[in-house]
Design goal:
The complex is a heterodimer of chains A (250) and B (354). By secondary structure, chain A is α/β, with parallel strands linked by helices. Chain A has helices spanning 25-38, 73-83, 95-101, 103-112, 152-155, 161-165, 182-201, 215-218, 222-236; strands spanning 45-49, 64-67, 88-94, 117-122, 171-178, 205-211, 240-244. Classes of the chains: A alpha/beta (250), B alpha/beta (354).
Amino acid sequence: MQDKLFAITKGLKDVSTHYCPGCHHGIIHRLVAEVLEELAVLDNTILIEPVGCSVLAHNYFDVDTIQAAHGRAPAVATAVKRIHTDSVVFTYQGDGDLAAIGCAEIVHAAMRGEKFTTIFVNNVIYGMTGGQMAPTTLENQVTATSPFGRKNNEAGKPMRVSEMLATLDGPKYIARVAVNTPGNVNKAKAAIKEAFIRQIRGDGFTFVEVLSTCPTNWGMSPIKANKFVEESMMPYFPLGLYKDGEGNKA
Amino acid sequence: MNEKILMKGNEAIGEAAVLAGCHYYFGYPITPQSELPEYMAKKLPAVGGVFVQAESEIAAINMLYGAAAAGVRAMTSSSSPGFSLKQEGISYIAAAELPCLLVNVQRGGPGLGTIQPGQADYFQATKGGGHGDYRLLVLAPNSVQEIFDLTIEGFDLADRYRIPVLILADGALGQMMEAVSLTVKSAVPVEKPWAITGRRGRVQANVVNTLSFDKDTAEQTNRDLQKKYAEISQNEARSEALLTDDAELVLVAYGITARIAKSAMERARESGYKVGLLRPVTLWPFPSAELLRVARTANAFLVCELSAGQMVEDVELAIRCQKPVHFYGRTGGNIPSTEELYQQIVKVLNKEGK
């Protein structure tokens, strides 16, 4: 009998996704679902999904799900986790949702040390609305609303969310990872797992930023998009561990 | 329990909510309702509940959206400028058919307006407020006792119809103290099989979702909502009629203004004028049938509000413009005196040839 080397995780429904070819949402969905399955918490997990390309994540994740208004997932998750304290609660948010319209909600949930996990998918652009500039859009990057490239003197320099949240005491784990190579996929999965383990332990707020692609709105092939992550995004958004704090004692 | 205790309106809302089994409060400070979050911050830990002071009204209403989706009784409160900020979230809560209690202790507007009482959020409360075709069930108490009773009943109505229920009070009701009997007449809690709890053995995952890309699905959602609103209109319109049977002039007022209108009506009766009062207790659904009934015998109506006349059109529609509808209102945080309303009554009766 041959050993089964790979199987689709029970955390995802057996359906095709609406994501574009070369988009990293599919990989990130799988990693999160695999981690939840390995931790044996699928039956008690609650997803708060955002507005953006992953607004239909409930079609893929086989867990109880609440769709939040744009940017408000951390506020929704705050209440849900305070009520179902024994559930595993996570928000899954893009950079337009989290870093722009939902900036206050993520900062204050992090500050309060709410005991849920946020998976932050940063592809330096608004994907679903057609490729507009986000707070994370790189300097001189051309988007639908920065047709001459993002300019520092008008739009400021790109926001580094992991570094910003790491200045707070509430978060107990913050990591930035990528899924552009098999090696990085493994590291990303380990970070996501660590974040959920610490949530289950009740440490405090945990946050994993995943650098991601948007080949469609970047106007690149999937292979070129993966290179863009490595060559253009990583120098400004370095991978690594930004917070490795002890759990709340109280 | 027959014993009565002296309470502020804002505190009575909090006490009633806790007794109704609401152990989750999410809010943000704003005058003149801050006694309510302060009360909940003290009370909820003692019953194993949760009080969260949110970073904004927007966060607070979205916490409430999460709590209501999670299947518990929960609430938020604010006053006019803050309540405007909640409108986005209220539209989502209505669309997702999540039961919860909202409280707006109104102050004068627009803008920052004033911290004194107002009733100028009537349009916002009864005509939508946020985007899309939705309704709130709007309760308008006129005493601290009625604040207490309607808060408890509000949770029952919210659960029964899966609708956000709004207690529309004002700064005067919120701040004033009256004797309250803390008798609880609450219905049994309803099952919420749709709630987001984690599957916990359930085969199918539950989803709370307000988006459909398919036009027909989105339209069906609207049809279902309208069907529910029609049922509520049929069943839940409520009002109090005082001395309307022989009244030539009927005052129409709600909330704190109805208290003053009642005194003015009594003063007018003493002077021999046939004046009555029709007080809407629900602002949506509006007690149109009752007004139409009263219009068969009354010669004219006088609407009194702490606004520039937002309720007038609902009265005119209710009586199908069969009788003249006059208006007297104050804004900017001013409250008319009994004498002031009495003078208006005399003026209107003279104009109507009585």
